[in-house]
TrEMBL record, chains A, B:
Domain Prephenate/arogenate dehydrogenase: 13-301
Ranges that cross the membrane: 12-31
Keywords of the record: Membrane, Oxidoreductase, Transmembrane, Transmembrane helix
Pfam families in the cross-refs: PDH_C, PDH_N
Name this polypeptide is given: Prephenate dehydrogenase/arogenate dehydrogenase family protein
PROSITE patterns referenced in this protein's UniProt entry, alphabetically: PDH_ADH
UniProt source species: Undibacterium seohonense
Amino acid sequence: MINDDAQTRPLFNKIALIGVGLIGGSFALSLKKARAVEHVVGLDRHSTSLKAALQLGIIDSFTDDMASAIADADLIVIATPVAQTTKILSSIYPYLQSNTIVTDVGSTKADVVLAARTSLQEKVSQFIPAHPIAGREKNGPEAAIDDLYVGKKVVITLLAENADQSIELVAQAWRLCGAIIHHLSPKEHDQVFASVSHLPHLLAYALVDDIAAKPHADRLFQYAASGFRDFTRIAGSSPEMWRDISLANRTAILEELDSYSAKLQQLRASLEASDSVALEAIYSRAQTARVNWITAIEAAESQNKDGGD
Amino acid sequence: MINDDAQTRPLFNKIALIGVGLIGGSFALSLKKARAVEHVVGLDRHSTSLKAALQLGIIDSFTDDMASAIADADLIVIATPVAQTTKILSSIYPYLQSNTIVTDVGSTKADVVLAARTSLQEKVSQFIPAHPIAGREKNGPEAAIDDLYVGKKVVITLLAENADQSIELVAQAWRLCGAIIHHLSPKEHDQVFASVSHLPHLLAYALVDDIAAKPHADRLFQYAASGFRDFTRIAGSSPEMWRDISLANRTAILEELDSYSAKLQQLRASLEASDSVALEAIYSRAQTARVNWITAIEAAESQNKDGGD
């Protein structure tokens, strides 16, 4: 499955890409740029997306026939909202050959692993769960770009059943996209992203919906500026995708939301009491942590860029 | 005070700039770029800031003597954290001549107007309260830039006592910086900005402080990505400045915080009940409102740019 003669033959003869939007489309474009794939066949609920993906060079053909799409594929990539994973894995199962690897790009992992165990049964060792930590405000094949993953993390949440060479194939594909491989357990993964990704999305959606529901919303939006723009950027994300993520990672998100709400009530109490010392202490701790974080991130990014040149 | 011969003589002979950081420094640099001021004298609590501002060409001289600084000034600009406004206005009062206009850049206005009435007494008509809606993540004179206000809004919250020519002088200064003048009452102003600026700052500070306090904070920050970066950008803002804003606009912020907390609890209930329809409804309304807002903002910005060329 892995070509030794990498100079002349691509890593993959055929990839079946299920979901040809931003994340899946950018994966395909990145691998094509790296000359790592011969043929990408697309499957998608939306025929308009398939036609757009074909025109944009994301895929080389499309079909609605799962059997033929995956028959001779080296790799199947599931890049749909996470709630569809079970159904898709079940439709893959009867046709899945032993030399084909299946992977996904879902933002939650415990539910995906459970779906894989249920749907793929004795073939579950062929499934490598992965999550690229990258995104854009825009969605769909038109938003796909060939450098979305450069310098970005991809978290692989291995199963005990996975063979080393299957893991390495998926890791190699992501490295060819410019990404850096990390490993977490599915539970660790879901807790981490509930905190630093899923909760912020909920908070941003809640703020925009709260403002939009006010009678004087037009005036409020008129004076919203760059701080508001950045704070609410993630509220421009796909509602369906985030509905699915919220439900799939419900327990961890509820826990983070309750921790956050307690912090917010503490801040409220300080404000109500006009406790300037307590207020400034919260703001100062946050500012320091934020500055330290951005400094570390920028140092790491510049190191990755240097390494990639 | 306003020169008719604008081609050869600048709008201002002398401006006294109290607070030479990002906001005041950018105002001075913008007016200098427009050749609208002959001499800027700086006053600041921090002598290092004054020296930096002098070196950066923000100010032409500095002093710690209020009397001499404002004696022959056309305009006095207060660009400090808002809690200092009362003290500064009181120190201005004894030396304030009838042909000098005073303005400020504070993010809250009801408290500033109250401070002006108390401190400036019969001279309050000379005070034009203003708030430029612009900022950066960085603070201090080093962060000041000469195009910070291009295409940005400046809200003037007039007093009944203000003379038309005083208002026009301040408006003209801001227009020379590239800004667009808006008018609101102090109360309207404070309610609007509690909603679209002050509350988001509190929410971002609370999230970063909540995460930083967790035992596994390092791992969490390690996986925080671009969504988190944008959401928390405003948590990099000055703790002192935001402590002052929080306290100055306490009542309006508490009201917005309670409205937001109710929305968040509604979202929490939907998530706990795994109510996918309710969740998607919140996310969809927010996404639609956010997309409509950004479309309108971008259209307005491109119009302003076209108009300025």
